[in-house]
Amino acid sequence: MWLTPCIGYSVLGGVVPAACCEGLKTTIAAKKTKKDRQLGCNCVKDSAAKIPGLNYDRVNEIPGICGTTIPYKITPDLDCSKVN
Questions:
Q1: Domains along the chain?
Q2: What is the dihedral of CA 79, 47, 22, 62, to 10 degrees?
Q3: Looking at residue 72, what DSSP letter applies?
Q4: Across residues 12-27, what is the average pLDDT?
């Protein structure tokens, strides 16, 4: 998964690795349609729920740190069907 390098920061804090930012930007670029974005949202949401100690505040800081944006905040109760 392109976002695997982001896990360390999401759990422990510290510095966001360059590989995390590269993976995030690659993931965003690959999601060209609404359906792609919804599937990506579900993938990230489901994967995040399986990571012990994940800090959702840190997860949602990553796009800004990487100089990009995503059209939603990752939360345990995110409704990915509403992602455009």
A1: 4-82 (1.10.110.10)
A2: 60
A3: S
A4: 95
DSSP track, 13-71: -S---HHHHHHHHHHHHH--SHHHHHHHHHHHHHHHHTSTT--HHHHHHHHHHTT---S
Taking only the tens place, the pLDDT of each residue in 22-43 is: 999 998 998 889 999 999 999 9
Tokens of 64: 């800004």
How many Å apart are CA 61 and CA 10, to the nearest integer? 9
Q: What is the pTM of this model?
A: 0.88
Contact partners, residue 55, CB within 8 Å, separation at least 6: 10, 11, 13
Largest CA distance in the chain: 33
What is the rounded CA–CA span in Å between residue 62 and residue 17? Answer: 10
